Each structure stands twice: as structure tokens, then as C-alpha cells.
């Protein structure tokens, strides 16, 4: 199948996602995650691009990039090449590290930009591996002044308000607003899906000697929370779908999702 040229963004803004070849973990440990972040910072020194947001997961990375001196294709190619060299040398391997063609989508307006950044920052939250502030490998901390200052936070905050204090307050509010929007999504094969979720819930409750109505009772709060965490970890179902499957309201599931703060 022939490849078609990507449509260029009129704003020069892109949401880019690079993932491991064959969905393999390519950012396995802290050293790997730190290396890719250092590469992002290093490539910016030549004014190749502005980086508004990033999030490093175990087998993929999300970037919100604005082209500067280089086109997005060259930017991504240089980032991938640098990390591939490091990764293959460290693990004494050869061959592709990243999936052959990166995924990207154009960002043509400010509203979509802010929504995409929120999506990127909420990746660990939705994957059940951390909270916004607790996850060390995203740019959210950069905006709070607690990160590595790799992201170009100043330019983005000025889009929100001329007042730095007001801009930061609104940025935090937007990012903490739980969203089920999907952008460049990675769908991993997990054991629980739409076709078998009811069976899993049924078996889980049967082992506890409970029924679905019991989940609404305060007496079984710990069981309810454990089951929600189980579904978050072992499925790609949205919070809305999990709530519906359990007969609970979405806010109950959202609170469990937001409270997860595991070390990466």
C-alpha cells in the first residue's frame, strides 16, 4: 500500500506519538525515560522545535510539538535515531526500536491544543500508573515549576492569559478536569474487553459471595474500589464504560482513577 504525504499543519503544531516496534517496552526503566527526555531537550537547542508537552510511557511517548527551524518529519526522525542508537547499544541488540512510521495529528486551533495537552498529561492517570503531579515522566511538573523545565511552558501559558498566575491557575484547572477524549490513542491487547467484561465482573463478585447491588453499599467500599482498580489495570475500557458495567455512577470511578499515585 503506498504511503501518502502528511498534510502540513497551518499552525505548525502537531501531536506526535512514537511507539515501540511490535508494541515492545522501549522505556523500561528510569534511565531509559530520562534518556529520551534528555534527547528532547538536546534537539531543542538548535531551535528545531518548541515542545509544549510530553509524556513518556513504557512503550510509547506523546509529544506536542511546534515546528521552528525544522519540519516535524525531520524533528521526529532525529529524536528517534538518537534514542535508537542508545537503546540498541545498551541492550546489545540491532534492528528497529520504534514502529516504522510515527503517528501524528495536526493541531489547528488553541482549544484543540489545550485539549491535546490535557490528554497527554492524563495518559498515566488513565493507564493506572500515576497521577498528574505524581508521575515523573511528563511535562505537567514543568508547568508547576517542579519538573526538568524541558517544556516551553511560558509560550503556552501566554496563550491562556497575560497574567502568569491566572494562566497557571486555569492550566491546572483544565488539566485536572477529567476527560475521556481520545486523540492519538494506543490500544493495547488486554485480557478484559467489551465482550467479556460482564463475565469477569460476575466471577469476581461470585468469589466474594456478593452481587452487583452490593457494590453500592458503604459496607463493601473496599471491594468496590478493588474491583474498579482491577478493571482499570486489565482493560482498555473507559471510565464511563466501567461505571456502566458495574451499575455505578461515573464520579465513583473517576475518584478511584484520580487517586491512583503509583511510582513509575
TrEMBL record:
| Coiled-coil parts of chain | none
* InterPro entries in the cross-refs: Transposase_17 (IPR002686), Transposase_17_sf (IPR036515)
Q: Which PANTHER family match?
A: TRANSPOSASE IS200-LIKE DOMAIN-CONTAINING PROTEIN, TRANSPOSASE, Y1_TNP DOMAIN-CONTAINING
A Pfam match is: Y1_Tnp
Gene Ontology MF annotations: DNA binding; transposase activity
User: TM segments?
Assistant: none
- The Transposase IS200-like domain sits at 9-123
Protein name, as recorded: Transposase IS200-like domain-containing protein
One GO-annotated biological process of the protein: DNA transposition
Amino acid at each position: 500500500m503506498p504511503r501518502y504525504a502528511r498534510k502540513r499543519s497551518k499552525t505548525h503544531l502537531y501531536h506526535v506519538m512514537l511507539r515501540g516496534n511490535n508494541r515492545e517496552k522501549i522505556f523500561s526503566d528510569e534511565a531509559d525515560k530520562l534518556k529520551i527526555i534528555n534527547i528532547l531537550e538536546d534537539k531543542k537547542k538548535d531551535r528545531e522545535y518548541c515542545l509544549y508537552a510530553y509524556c513518556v510511557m513504557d512503550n510509547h511517548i506523546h509529544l506536542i510539538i511546534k515546528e521552528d527551524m525544522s519540519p516535524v518529519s525531520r524533528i521526529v526522525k532525529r529524536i528517534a535515531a538518537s534514542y535508537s542508537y542508545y537503546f540498541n547499544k545498551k541492550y546489545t541488540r540491532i534492528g528497529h526500536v520504534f514502529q516504522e512510521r510515527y503517528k501524528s495529528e495536526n493541531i489547528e486551533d488553541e482549544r484543540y491544543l489545550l485539549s491535546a495537552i490535557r490528554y497527554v498529561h492524563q495518559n498515566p492517570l488513565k493507564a493506572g500508573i500515576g497521577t498528574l503531579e505524581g508521575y515523573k515522566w511528563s511535562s505537567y511538573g514543568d508547568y508547576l515549576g517542579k519538573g526538568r523545565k524541558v517544556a516551553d511552558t511560558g509560550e503556552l501559558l501566554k496563550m491562556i492569559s497575560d497574567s502568569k498566575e491566572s494562566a497557571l491557575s486555569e492550566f491546572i484547572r483544565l488539566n485536572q478536569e477529567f476527560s475521556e477524549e481520545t486523540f492519538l490513542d494506543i490500544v493495547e491487547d488486554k485480557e478484559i474487553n467489551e465482550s467479556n467484561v460482564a463475565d469477569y465482573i460476575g466471577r469476581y463478585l461470585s468469589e466474594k459471595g456478593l452481587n452487583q447491588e452490593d457494590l453500592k453499599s458503604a459496607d463493601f467500599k473496599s471491594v468496590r474500589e478493588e474491583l474498579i482498580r482491577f478493571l482499570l489495570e486489565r482493560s482498555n475500557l473507559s471510565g464511563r464504560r466501567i461505571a456502566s458495567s458495574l451499575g455505578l455512577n461515573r464520579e465513583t470511578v473517576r475518584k478511584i482513577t484520580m487517586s491512583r499515585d503509583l511510582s513509575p
